[in-house]
Specification:
Order of helices and strands: EEHEHHEHHHEEEHHH
Low-confidence stretches: none
Number of helices: 9
Radius of gyration: 17 Å
Shape: globular
Mean pLDDT: 91
Distance between the termini: 28 Å
Structural class: alpha/beta
């Protein structure tokens, strides 16, 4: 999903399990004209196509484009436990019967298919932020420095916030935030091999 404001001149690219709902609430509460465009956790390439198809490419080019990412090791374990904990999730019953390693192979199959999966579009972090393999985001914050990074964004787009609300299922409510305890050599190697570009670009390690 993505949020767009013409008045405040921004596009927020919502990557799943990266504090997106919390950020969306702040943006919606402080930006009366904000609208949702596309859907299914759209990539920036999808969003650019949307603007282009509606003869609004100048608006796209002029907009301040931002998003948030997180360490892939933490990101994917969070997604795994979120799907298991959220009974309404379309893949709850499927994933609940999987080990984490099985889940990773299942997810990679979804990512490589490049198809929308019901309400979701799965991808690697850079998949959401590139157009023709080039980064077109103006700012990419990290969950690990969420409040400091969002202060940079809020100053740029002209909004004021006190704290970032914790929405969706709260972090730590359904799994241990020490993600390392869930990994073995097999699962670590799967992430290292298949998310190498994300790890290298955003300088994440296990």
């Amino acid at each position: 999903m993505a949020l767009y404001s013409e008045n405040r001149n921004f596009i927020f690219v919502h990557i799943y399990k990266c504090a997106g709902n919390s950020i969306r609430k702040i943006l919606a509460d402080n930006t009366p004209d904000v609208i949702e465009i596309n859907g299914a956790h759209s990539t920036l390439e999808d969003i650019k196509l949307h603007f282009n198809n509606n003869n609004l490419i100048d608006k796209y080019n002029q907009s301040y484009k931002f998003s948030f990412v997180r360490n892939p090791y933490a990101w994917l374990i969070s997604l795994y436990f979120y799907i298991i904990a959220c009974r309404k999730h379309q893949y709850n019953k499927v994933v609940s019967n999987m080990s984490y390693v099985q889940f990773l192979f299942w997810l990679l199959d979804k990512i490589n298919s490049k198809q929308i999966q019901g309400e979701n579009k799965y991808g690697k972090l850079l998949d959401f932020l590139t157009v023709d393999n080039k980064i077109e985001s103006d700012f990419i914050g990290k969950i690990e420095t969420l409040e400091d990074d969002f202060k940079i964004i809020s100053n740029k787009i002209g909004i004021v916030f006190e704290t970032i609300p914790e929405l969706n299922i709260k972090r730590g409510q359904y799994y241990d935030l020490n993600y390392r305890k869930y990994y073995n050599n097999i699962s670590k190697n799967i992430i290292r091999k298949n998310f190498e570009s994300d790890l290298d670009y955003f300088k994440y390690t296990f």
